[in-house]
Amino acid sequence: MMMLFNAFAKKLFGVKYEKLLKSVFICFVVYEAALSSGYKLAINPFILYLMSAVFTAGMMWQGLNASDTSSYIRNMVMMPFDNKAFAAAYIGSLGIYNIISKTLLLWAVVFAVGSFDVYSVICAVLAAVCGVLIISVIYTFKKIWFLSLIWAAVVIGCIFGLKDMGVFVMIGVFGLNILLAAAALAFTNGYALYDQSCENIAHKGTVKSHKHNLVWTYLLRYITSHKNYMFNTLIIWAMAVIIPWFLTMINENPEFNRMLMYIGYGLVVVNTPLCILVSCDPDLERGLRCLPGNGKDFFIPYGAFLFVSNSLSYVFYLVSWNIRIGGVTVAHMILAVICAALSAFLSIMMEKFFTLKKWKIESDLWHHPRKYVVPIIVMLTACLIGSFM
Questions:
Q1: Pick from 117, 87, 109, 96: which is nearest to 39 by CA?
Q2: Do residues 5 and 92 lie in contact, with contact meaning Cβ atoms separated by under 8 Å?
Q3: Cα gap 129→123, rounded to integer Å
Q4: What is the full DSSP assignment across 223-243?
Q5: How far is the C-alpha of 171 from the C-alpha of 166, rounded, in Å?
Q6: pLDDT tens column, 95-113
Q7: pTM over 0.70
Q8: Residue 250 neighbours by CB under 8 Å, 6+ apart
Q9: What letters, b where the CB count within 10 A reaches 16 and e where it falls short, cover 195-213?
């Protein structure tokens, strides 16, 4: 089992586990920076437990559904293996990776600005482990996914329902669910972790399309075969509807709301998956470098595709803003078109000239700091142009 664990861990953390030390160091720096700021916030412990469980579960789900996972698991299951050891090694290594590289960063900020005793910290760790195991059960037992979802809903309900019962009750709840999830995973095998859906799509037949629509056909088939990409895009569009209602709760001053409106122009284009299609596919990136014009015939339709997606985000955003506050003019619509085009252009420039290559799993790309560069530029542009409107 340790050989399998080391094989998976070295893929995630690096051959010499350099990613592990880097993640811990970054979290330490963030913790010290937040602590030295002197800012304190009263955070209910049950919020800490809920964040730890849900956030870690979300990161684990992204890791299990990453497109590079299926090919790696496929290569591993070609060799003789022990079912229980294989599942335990893979889920354990991926869970530890997500807790250390993702959840630990969240804890660094929360523990710096909040005040928690040692038992609350232990409970938060158990909540994160519980999130890892339960989401793994949901992923591996796809045929009874509805029972797994009911189980997850019951756990979340317990967090809300028992929040006033004390930390030791919550430790018992998470501990019990960890044991139940571990017992369920004892009946799984390595093949349950291998999702062939992405590979099967390539064998569904030939798609009829005109030559100038080939890139669009490829992009549409790519995002439909990667459920995470479609889901994240829908989340962005939903956020575009919610953001006006949330921003206006901060202040009722019309002038202040007008500035918040331009900030929202940057928030609705943080569509990470669609903006990293080249980075997340090394084979595509290498192929584009070999094409005449360095992939120009791909990046132009790709930019148009991003422009359409961004434009839809702005449509939802401006319609929601007009319903909530009103005052949307033709100038705001023109600004939305400009920002959609700017975001698409900057995104393809990032992918063309600053392709992300040093990553372990696809989830690393989704949370790379580069994702904030384009939205910040769009936000500043919208604020600058909006100041003259």
A1: 109
A2: yes
A3: 10
A4: HHH-HHHHHHHHHHHHHHHHH
A5: 9
A6: 898 898 888 988 988 888 8
A7: no
A8: 256, 260
A9: beebeeeeeeeeeeeeeee
Distance, CA of 299 to CA of 310 (rounded, Å): 16
194: left (phi over 0), alpha (psi -120 to 50) or beta: beta
Q: DSSP 3-state assignment of 42?
A: coil
99 vs 8, 49, 166, 181, 264, CA distance in Å?
A: 15, 14, 24, 17, 31
Q: How far apart are CA 149 and CA 144, in angstroms?
A: 9
The 10s digit of each residue's pLDDT in 126-144 is 999 998 998 888 888 777 7
DSSP H helices, 99-213, are 104-113, 118-140, 145-161, 167-185, 197-201
- Name residue, tokens 């990161």: 59
Q: State how far the Cα of 64 lies from the Cα of 361, in Å rounded to an integer.
A: 10
Domain boundaries, the chain: 2-193, 213-386
Treating both helix axes as pointing N-terminal to C-terminal, what angle do 145-161 and 118-140 enclose, rounded to 10 degrees? 160
